[in-house]
Design goal:
Pfam families: AsnC_trans_reg. This is Lrp/AsnC ligand binding domain-containing protein. The chain is α+β, with helices and mostly antiparallel strands. Helices cover 28% and strands 32% of the residues.
């Protein structure tokens, strides 16, 4: 599984529609509206690296109202769930 984080600048008047259209694209798992210099952040999860070339430039970038995108490909995932599992190694139940 390949995960990419896509920063999206959108036409301010169209942010809700852009978010909905991006969220409906195959491969896009989540879309968040955010504060700061960006308008939306999309999480793209695909089976192969080459699939990103279809999802992002051919679909996300072509949504009406998308002004620009910046894509970051994730190397490794760290989550609180993973950390909890690591810290519980070797502990007995109830301890």
């Amino acid at each position: 599984m390949v995960t990419a984080i896509v920063f999206i600048k959108a036409d301010v008047a169209r942010i809700p529609e852009v978010a909905e259209q991006v969220a409906a694209i195959d491969g896009v798992s989540e879309v968040y509206s955010v504060t700061g210099g960006l308008d939306l952040i999309a999480l793209v999860r695909v089976a192969r690296h080459d699939d990103l070339a279809t999802v992002i430039p051919e679909h996300v970038n072509r949504v009406p109202g998308v002004i620009s995108t910046e894509t970051h490909i994730a190397f490794r995932a760290y989550s609180s769930h993973d950390l909890e599992a690591a810290f519980s190694l070797g502990q007995e139940d109830g301890v």
